Amino acid sequence: MATAAATAKNRTEDPEETEKENKKHPRDPAREVVETVVFVVVLVLLLKLFITEAFVIPTGSMAETLYGYQKVITCPKCSHDFPVNSHDEVEANQQTGQKHALIGYCCPNCRHLGRIEDLNPRPENRTGDRVLVLKPLYHIRAPHRGDVVVFKYPEEPQKNHVAANYIKRAMGFGGETVAIYRGDLYVTMSLAYPPGDLYPRPDDPRDLWKSEYMYSSGPASAQGQQLFAASREAGFTERVPGGFRVVRKGEAQLLADRRLVWDNDKQPRDLAGRVSPRWEQYGSTGKWNPDNPQQPRAFAHSGDTIDWLRYQHITWTREQLTEEQINGGAKPRLLPWRWEGGNHAKPVAGPIDNMLGYNAGVDFNPVLGRAEQRDDPRRGPEPTMWVGDLVLECEAEVSGGAEVVLEVSRGPNRFQAKFGNGQVSLARVGTKGPEFGNPSRPCKVTAGKYKLRFANVDCRLWVWVDGQRVDFGAEGDYDPAEATSYDADDPMKEGWVRENDIDQPAKIGAKGGVSVSGIKLHRDVYYTRGGGDQTSADIFYVHPGHYMCLGDNSAQSSDSRRWGTVPERLMLGKAVFVFFPLSTDKGKNRVGFIK
């Protein structure tokens, strides 16, 4: 046996023998190419059928997590980069059936209203995100709450022989009753909806996805509204067995859902000396020294008592903008600044709202022959709802023995994270302060420079030091507390409190030697429910085998709030990765995993 193996080895090493063997079995390059092509095609088909598929995001219902057609704007006033929805200029507008040119934008950071023609964004900024989707989703693992899923639109899975695929987050599940209230989601599993006149069923069980079977209006919604009112009265606690509880997102989704309110490093130079700084010393006896009194970007503190910087949000009295001012006669034009003199809008302090730069474009409507601002509050309140869930971050340089405090407000209470001496502690200041417990954890903040982040989202407090979360577990959770009366300037009864949510929605305090810079304030995603009194909730039932899917861009998303739920059979998979568009600009590359 060994002799035969050696003989074969010698024959293969002999060039003459090798050449003879090749002549007996000649290579066929054409055949090899065909075999390779067939293998690749079969592999791609198998991957597409069973494992993964690529999808293009055409619309902005998931902005700013995922983008549809858009133009990236660099604000000429504050240099903030942001995308603006350009879907209607690429594809026809659903209402008019014609393309609408994108002619204007509004910066979400400084609120400058400008003209697209003055900037001439690059054409490659108009494409939507390309994503990879793992499938089939529900055969392997049912989606978790917060997963970004792709599905066939239940009402019309195909249109003109083209699949109508939607992408949203799975936020409600079979058997749950979901409430949308003041931007947050609440859920209970205790409600039953027996078939009958009050809770009808369709003749075809495949139609259970339709909105009329979510029992969100009329007499069918009574038991949900009653349980929600009782749960709210009890602070959404266990005092109401089986009552509604707030839905709390995980860390990855929380960070993905952040929407910029103000970047203090990007202040419009035009406003220096004309508008008070958004971050400034609070109180007359403080010891904060700004690097620039008119537009401070960094602050240094000294002294052995705690002193505060406070943020005030600037809004505009946009009702002062007339149609004639916006359109300027026959040729569409835009006001260069909302806060210049005359009849233009002027800056005032107001509650932080859910304005999104992606939505705040200005289109030219060819049917009406005029410009239209998409988020104009005269059409409805959805882009100007108060948001109380905030995320505050900064870079702090702390000397030995010093302390720094990050604080955010929501309604009648203010929430604090105090850093220093190797510890971080949480506190609540307000009507329910003593009930919170003031928990503390060790952290690395002693003396040095640190990146700090503090969030109050979904009635849970979060803390990060240099990007690493400090885990407080259930001790960081609290029960919602609401204002017992409403401000005279709060006709929608949203529940904000002037003393906290306008005068000091966010603050930074220090004791000892502390310097702060790189201050940024974000807000959470706000789930809208339309106009009217905000003291009630929109309530939906999700039938077993169905999912309630919501877009991150709630103010401009066609989702389960409007047309119904998604049957399991129409689920295509979970979106996991953005592979396009690529960018060579640092910080603008969108390639990566979807959170």
Task: Describe this protein's structure.
The protein has 595 residues and is an alpha+beta fold. Among the domains are: 54 residues, no CATH class; 187 residues, Umud Fragment, subunit A; 171 residues, Jelly Rolls (Sandwich), CATH 2.60.120.560. It is built from nine helices and 37 strands. Strands 1, 6, 7, 10, 34, 35, 36 and 37 form an eight-stranded antiparallel sheet that branches. Strands 14, 16, 17, 23, 28, 29, 30 and 32 form an eight-stranded antiparallel sheet that branches. Strand 16 and strand 17 form a beta hairpin. The N terminus is likely disordered.
List keywords for this structure.
alpha+beta; Umud Fragment, subunit A; Jelly Rolls; 8-stranded antiparallel β-sheet; 9 helices
